[in-house]
Predict the structure of RNA (guanine-9-)-methyltransferase domain-containing protein 1.
Amino acid sequence: MIKNFQFADLNIRFTGNKEKTINLVKRAIRMGYDSVAINVDVGLFFCPELKNEEEPPSKKRKKKEIGNVATLPEPFIVDEKLLDLSLLERQDSTSVFRLQQALKNSKYDIVAVRPTSLDILNTIAKKGTFVDIITTDKSEGRICWLTRSKALQNAAFEDGLTFEIVYSPSLKDRETRRNLITNSRILLNIFSSGKGVIISSGAEDLSELRGPYDAMNITVLFGVDSKYARKFVSENAVNVLKRCSSRKTLKCTYIEVSIDNEDELDKYKEVVNIDEIKKIDLFNDQIKKILRKQINRFYDKEVIWKGIALEKSNYPSENFYKNYNEELKDRISLKIKEVEIISGFYEFFPTKISDNDWSLLLECNNIKETLDQIKFLKQRELQREKENKKKLENKKNMEIKVEKQNLFSPVGINMLSIGNRKNRTQIEKQNYVSSLLLNETPKIVIDCRYIPDLSIRAQNLTMSQIKYVAFENRIRKEPWPLCLANFNDSLNEKVLRHVDFLRCNQSLEDCTEKNYTEIYDPSKIVYLSPDSENELDHIKGDEVFVIGGIVDRVREHKIPKHASLEAAMKDNVKSVKLPLDKYVKWKSGTKYLTLTAVVSILQDVYDTNNDWTYSLKKNIPVRNLKSSEEKNQKAKDFHASIREFDRRVLVEIEKKLSELS
């Protein structure tokens, strides 16, 4: 079918009338289409049902009914030669895995998805190899993720997804036609090469179906040069068919290479499907040997002194010393000795340490914290190198594509500057103010009293989480009022830079040194603490939820074990905990959630009318819902070997310091 291919319409909608759909397919073939896909639109898949407050509580489900998994309807098949398309709307990233499981035994050949947010699009791009087409809702005006050009280019050029323009809605009314033209021009402005975009009819009736050459002419309305219009119904459609066909084709490549470590194994993961090769006993045994060797490498590795590797350019500058008195200068000298000795024992060492990095190293209270910060600097350095390399490759690829052809040429329709970052920020601020004035929603307070007592690494992690909470809250349809209480401005400037946008005069969020009891009615305040005896049953809408600004990653020695509960008792306010044990089966890890997870759970519970099961399963990390037996034991052993090596390094560092003192 692909060999003698001319044109395709990959979206003829099946509305339940078989005869009508067959007539549409026959008409499309007579019009000159070689391949037609029947669209069975599933809509919202795994969508939680919102409860009506006026309805009486439903009866409890039987245990065997709770485990039932939602299934896809059977595709409508006209002929064996015709591919079938399943269109689904993704609502949250946790559903992507469940969708993949549902599609395993289905008969669908092509899968199209309507993402409802940028997060869903990114999840599908990275993990959704079972998805072929990204489409939009015909009734949508402004599409939130359509202006994120980098994310869309990565999804198309790197992950092989195709974006769809459906023209039939524009034949119905003026408003829909305007939205379609605007959104299509934005999309084609991003994909200047024309690669990764198809045009389909989405026809439900014979009057909405157009021939392939008419479909090409429609692309002119979107700013496409007519000489390049053919690829939207031909070349790009072939790529979709090849992608879906490859999933049903067994491909095998025999590669004979010598692999000594896991880093070399990662190079071949892009060439071959490692998961499929692991099913072959011979290859699986070899891979296990490599992984065992990788794990034992740190257990067997000796801690050897190789001399100071800290370069002169990485020492603190003269300007750095000017900011400190004589007492602190002695502390700087001691810290330099620590870093010098670490560089002599530890290979995972950064090539560049700036004055800002030294200011953070000075905040470390012991050698272990200093070593952890050094490792973080090296990881950040490697991540930046990777990002810069990727940026250069993308820039080079885009320059080549633009030189080859410039599809986008204005044809008289004004292009809207929706992608402007300032415009997006202004819209978010207007939405935030409107929500404060018009909507009665709960309030979020982050108690920052314990942040100064955290380690420098924990301070950075906590501030980073606060930043994400603020950003995620701003882009909600109904943002909640957010306040940082007991905030201390005397923290390290490198730490405070995470929340600079909250400290400026133009910020809509409150950032104050006052306690929350001075700002809000104490009777409305609810302090969330995992150590509380009371559980939060439901959210009314007038609560002031207080969350402790404490990082969940590691145990902090200066922070009380039950810090949030002690804070609530000290301020004489009500404390509650999330009903984790009641709605989810917690299998591993502590029940301390990140700030972002807690806020997301509260907002989802409120939005879904107190659906705790859905909200908790959506936001609790999968690692906490798996037992130790279900987790990857090799990864655990590997990280345990690194921790053991670090422990031996710390012992040698302390010995070396005692010799020098």
